[in-house]
Amino acid sequence: MITSDEIKRRLWDGANDLRGSMDASRYKDYMLGLMFYKFLSDQTLETFKDTSGETESDKMKLVESYREAHQEYGEQLTNMIGNVLGYYVLPEYLYQNWMADINNGDFEVQKVIDSLNNFERTIAVSGDSDDFKGLFSNSTLDLSNTALGSTLNERSKNIKKLILLFADLDMVALQKRDVLGDAYEYLIGQFAMESGKKAGEFYTPRQVSEVMAQIVAQSSNINSIYDPTVGSGSLLLTARNHLLKDDQKLLNYYGQEKNTATYNLTRMNLLLHGVRPERMTIRNGDTLAEDWPEDPDQPSEGVQFDAVVMNPPYSVKNWNQSDLKVSDPRFEVAGVLPPDSKGDYAFLLHGLYHLGQEGTMAIVLPHGVLFRGGTEGQIRKRLLEKNYIDTIIGLPDKLFTNTGIPVTVIILKKNRALDAPVLVIDASHTFTKEGKQNVLREKDIARLVDTYVKRSETKGYSHLATREEIIENEYNLNIPRYIESVDEEIPHDVDAHLFGGIPYKNIKDLHVLQSTVPHVIENALEEVRTGYVQLKHDIDVLKESVLEDNAVLEKSKSLEGRIKSYQDKYWELLKSVNDVNDIKAIREAMLDEIKEILSEFDYIDEYDGYQIIADIWSETLTEDAEIIAVSDFYEKGRKRVPNIVTKGSGNKKREEQDGWIGSIVPNDLIRTTLYNEELVNIETKETRLQEVESELTELVEAAKVEESDEEIALSDTLNEKEDAFLIGSVRNELKAVEKESTDHALLKNIEELLNERTKLNRDVKKLETELKEMTETRIETLTDEEIDTLMYEKWFGSVISKVNRLLEIPLTEELVVLEQLQDRYSDTLDALEAESEELEKELEVMMAQMVVSG
């Protein structure tokens, strides 16, 4: 079974190999378009098989059965398939025919063009859903484009490779497991990163989508969701993922996209994620130029939605090409039109107009919308007076590939209590760097969403701004006006600098140490004068005392017990998972519960623990759970699969099998756990090999020293280019010197070292080969108990130590502060003056000794 991660890696590697110099933003249309056509063909065949009672499992034989049935029943058959799917692909135009032509050497690009055009005509004639019309238009998939190859032969070759990339993927099975949609979304994201500035046309970074979607999903009864600048549809789908399964089935999706190629991408993305055609209404049009969707029965109100999400283009100039007036119902609430030079508030007001009374809207915009004046200031004031702005979230810069500016997510509601404050969150400092981009981690997203849900205030991070504060700030929502950055610098104490000692008030501010081990801290200090103390011992001694104190050890033991019970609970759930659709719920439960457990322990950051579990899911659990869900845990534990490695480069790049690896049990873990004695033997020989290499290196250097014994005896045996001794030369020299001489002893030592090195290299290689073979064979004979031991170690082996580290971090951080205070005040003014006087005396002595010549 191919997992989601394996598909992602394979398809993206394939994309990089095949696209050559074509721009990523353009190549994505070809790759994702053909991938989608494979999905349509597989769905057509699967539906034919189900509705006709066909039992044939071989795809090409099934194609033949479909062809024969179509010859006999014609439109009756295609109508039956169309009624189920909302579309169909005729037998002669199936993706499988392209594959057969490639295998037979009969492939022609024109057949692909004919297939895509026929599908377009079929949809147009049948009057089926608009969701399929124009998907493969020439403007999107121009297979005659010279960027695919300067000649027909080159284009044919490249298109064949692209077709074969999806050849063995069962799109129907992958969609049922929700793997296909994830892979498609992943590819869109990867193409976005490669596309640079052009990515803004079709993609919202996953972590920004998550923040917006999770907040919107907190609203109840979401039956409809709208994205007026829908891009690839990622915001709609991410919001869908945070709804209950039953609610997902009833969700209606609406979106509008100006760019035709991106509009096609949206529809493909939604359909691949299992969204039924009748549940999606996506339009190719300009959101600002003409309001959509409209309600014919209520032309002045517009269609309203339970949720609105938007990532519009930022600060669009000349947005009002249609000469819209303030009387446009979308802008009436503001009383003025947004400035023609910046379309940010035009998009916001459009979305707000279509927001239902009980709904939630999330829009991401540049920070300028929070404080710019003029008509934008008037609009912001009107929105605040109407009480529509619910939350302001400041995000880091460099989150988007198409802009480096920091952005803000604004949450709007129409049903807020009159006295409800505006929640301001400054999440601009919580991120990690990945290359040139900043990325929100799982824990950053969790902290942000929890703060939103709880409406909690945290110094330096979040604040509930009252109406009075906002009025006092003249309706300026610039985040620094409401949240001050936390200054962690401890003020200097003049007396301490003059006379030494650490101010005791600074010791009292070490809240974690004072709360956890107050007796240890008190015993470690001695008073130098009233209100000032110094450390009795080195900081390392104090650290050891703190971490080995009974209070810390008891807390650690209690924490370990809770984590062990937590691990055991989810161990049983994970090893017995039998439905791919249950995996997400298990993951969410694990993440929520680790936060609950750690929140019971003072001074532990539960979000750091959240990240530990999120990382385990990312690194191992997601892929393993997918494999286990479609099989048996112990069966997969004893299954081995080919270890495919890539060798060579350029035209010589190829994939080869290099032995076997466990389907879920890592070979390295089998070696370290079950073959420890063999590993120790190898490591012992490798250690001796390093010693021999070191001895030889020293002798090589000695042989370069002129007139040394080593140079006289060994110089003729050296290969100077490689800085190494030649065994043949060493043996020849041995024959020429006296046996009892110094030269003979040196040469004999070199010979023995070279022989030993050769033998050690041979032995290590032989032992490693034997261990590799034993490990690969052992996979298939692992007992249930061994699989339990190995997989528990793989999933949870490092969790307790990492969580215990979270217990130590706040203690050690305050110990570092204590050490800094000790260093800061260790040199008093008197000591510095004495040192200065001593230096002056030394200088005078030196000056007196200096002789000036004429």
From TrEMBL:
Keywords: Coiled coil, Methyltransferase, Restriction system, S-adenosyl-L-methionine, Transferase
Pfam families, per the entry: HsdM_N, N6_Mtase
Ranges where the DNA methylase adenine-specific domain occurs: 176-488
Segments forming a coiled coil: 675-709, 750-784, 815-849
Cleaved signal peptide residues: none
Catalytic activity line of the entry: a 2'-deoxyadenosine in DNA + S-adenosyl-L-methionine = an N(6)-methyl-2'-deoxyadenosine in DNA + S-adenosyl-L-homocysteine + H(+)
Alphabetized InterPro entries for the sequence: D12N6_MeTrfase_N, DNA_Adenine_Mtase, DNA_methylase_A-5, DNA_methylase_N6_adenine_CS, Restrct_endonuc_T1M, SAM-dependent_MTases_sf, T1MK-like_N_sf
Source organism, top-level taxon: Bacteria
Record-linked Gene3D superfamilies: 1.20.1260.30, Vaccinia Virus protein VP39
Domain (N6 adenine-specific DNA methyltransferase N-terminal) ranges: 7-165
EC number annotated for this UniProt entry: 2.1.1.72
Record family assignment: Belongs to the N(4)/N(6)-methyltransferase family.
Identification of the protein by name: site-specific DNA-methyltransferase (adenine-specific)
